[in-house]
């Protein structure tokens, strides 16, 4: 019975040869190398759906939702899908402190998606309870003073930007507010430093003004800057703070559209500081550009 079967197969093969497509034509021979198959950074996400096809980022985190992943976004905190960068220094035009002069770079960007981002940060103050949750860094404690900082960065000349939302206000304290700071020193126990943010002083009475640059030393806070307008420390209030100290020790503070500069006796190397007073505040991110 074997011979007829073999003959039949041979006949079939002979008949089809030349009229059917070759094996290579049918299945492409070697594995197809279509764009959908590429994963140049090896993070398991194919290039055509990878928001950073050249940088390993399994989590595909995209803080500003512009379709460009955090690790390859030239302004990871501001939506800029076109990634325009006029001076080609890697910092996008919309967040470049010097958009027409190359030389800036992103020193640090923390989107607060993972607790490991603050593992090396040091906390100070009473009842401090900073946690990373829901993509934010939240100071949850009912604290009169809470400081968090990272001493690994010489932040004096760095442009530090954060976005904060007030979750609740602890009315039992005189001061309520939050700030990003380019200096903080301890001791003395209360600390000394200067920050850019907003503060409400309840001792100033009803309709109290709000201040941007905040300075403090071992004995108290000093709201030595200008009153705020159109902004207030209140539940739900959200604002962007940017602090930068120049070579003359002027701290330049931007709160929303307001800008203010004040002399501070700043010391380099004291790291990036985020502070909250008498409030529960949530920080979306912190970015440092120098
Ligand atoms: Ca990939
Ligand atoms: Ca992005
Ligand atoms: Ca962006
Ligand atoms: Ca640039």
Task: Give an account of the 3D structure.
The protein has helices at 2-16, 23-27; strands spanning 106-110, 122-124, 130-133, 136-139, 146-150, 159-169, 175-185, 192-201, 210-216, 221-222, 238-245, 250-255, 258-263, 272-277, 279-289. It is mostly beta strands. Strand 7 (175-185) and strand 8 form a beta hairpin. Bound molecules: calcium ion (4 copies).
The counted number of beta strands is: 15
Radius of gyration, taken over Cα atoms and rounded to an integer in Å: 28 Å
The helix/strand series, from N terminus to C terminus, equals: HHEEEEEEEEEEEEEEE
Number of helices: 2
Strand content: 25-35%
Q: How would a crystallographer describe the biggest sheet?
A: 8 strands, antiparallel
Extract low-pLDDT stretches: 1-32
Report the span from N to C terminus: 84 Å
Mean pLDDT: 77
Present the secondary structure layout.
Elements: H1 2-16, H2 23-27, E1 106-110, E2 122-124, E3 130-133, E4 136-139, E5 146-150, E6 159-169, E7 175-185, E8 192-201, E9 210-216, E10 221-222, E11 238-245, E12 250-255, E13 258-263, E14 272-277, E15 279-289
Antiparallel strand pairs: 1-15, 2-5, 3-4, 4-15, 5-14, 6-11, 6-15, 7-8, 7-14, 8-9, 9-10, 11-12, 12-13
The chain binds calcium ion (4 copies).
């Amino acid at each position: 019975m074997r011979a007829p079967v073999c003959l039949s197969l041979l006949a079939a093969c002979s008949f089809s040869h030349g009229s059917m497509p070759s094996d290579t034509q049918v299945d492409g021979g070697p594995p197809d190398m279509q764009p959908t198959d590429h994963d140049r950074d090896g993070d398991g996400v194919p290039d055509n759906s990878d928001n950073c096809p050249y940088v390993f980022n399994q989590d595909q985190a995209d803080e500003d939702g512009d379709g460009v992943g955090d690790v390859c976004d030239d302004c990871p905190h501001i939506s800029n899908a076109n990634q325009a960068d006029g001076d080609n220094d890697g910092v996008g035009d919309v967040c470049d402190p010097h958009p027409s002069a190359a030389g800036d770079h992103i020193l640090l960007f923390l989107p607060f998606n993972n607790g490991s981002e603050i593992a090396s940060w040091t906390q100070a103050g009473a009842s401090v309870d900073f946690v990373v949750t829901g993509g934010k860094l939240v100071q949850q404690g009912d604290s009169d003073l809470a400081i968090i900082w990272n001493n690994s960065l010489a932040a004096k000349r760095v442009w530090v930007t954060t976005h904060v939302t007030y979750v609740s206000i602890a009315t039992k304290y005189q001061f309520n507010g939050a700030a990003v700071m380019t200096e903080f020193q301890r001791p003395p126990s209360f600390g000394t430093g200067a920050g850019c943010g907003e503060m409400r002083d309840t001792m100033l009475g009803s309709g109290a003004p709000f201040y941007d640059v905040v300075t403090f030393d071992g004995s108290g806070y000093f709201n030595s800057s200008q009153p705020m307008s159109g902004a207030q420390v209140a539940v739900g209030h959200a604002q962007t703070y940017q602090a930068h100290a120049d070579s003359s020790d002027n701290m330049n503070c931007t709160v929303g559209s307001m800008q203010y500069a004040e002399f501070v006796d700043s010391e380099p190397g004291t790291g990036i500081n985020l502070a909250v007073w008498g409030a529960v505040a949530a920080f979306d991110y912190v970015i440092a550009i120098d």
